[in-house]
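Students often ask what a 'structure token' actually looks like in practice. Rather than answer in the abstract, let us consider UPF0225 protein HJ583_011995, a protein of 128 residues. Its sequence is given first.
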Amino acid sequence: MKTGLPCPCGLPASYEHCCGRYHGGQAAPTPEALMRSRYSAFALGLGDYLIASWHPGSRPAELDLSTPPLAKWIGLKIVSTALQDADHGTVHFIARCRVGGRAERLEELSRFVREDGRWFYLDGEIAA
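Now compare that with the structural description of the same chain:
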């Protein structure tokens, strides 16, 4: 992304001062920061980051973001966040996208775990 562009996650910061630093290797400090950086990674097609930020016990062997129909991610809303303890958290979010011109909505309650000082996406419960 070009310098100074807004971050795809929706926070009022430039990409390089928001999710770009986590994509560059800095550890996300909270489950919400990791969730936002994962949303941005989906929006930017950063499959390697998505795999690396997924807990090894639950991540897929591979992730293909290039097979049509491709999603164009257009918005993220954080509904709520919670820490169950120092190493476990949840983020309830709604992500919007367009697939083939059709609007889609993904609502999920995601679970995160911190190991060795890094947060990982564990899994999520998709709302019906």
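One point worth highlighting: The mean pLDDT is 95. Ask yourself how you might have guessed this from the sequence alone, and why that guess would often be unreliable.
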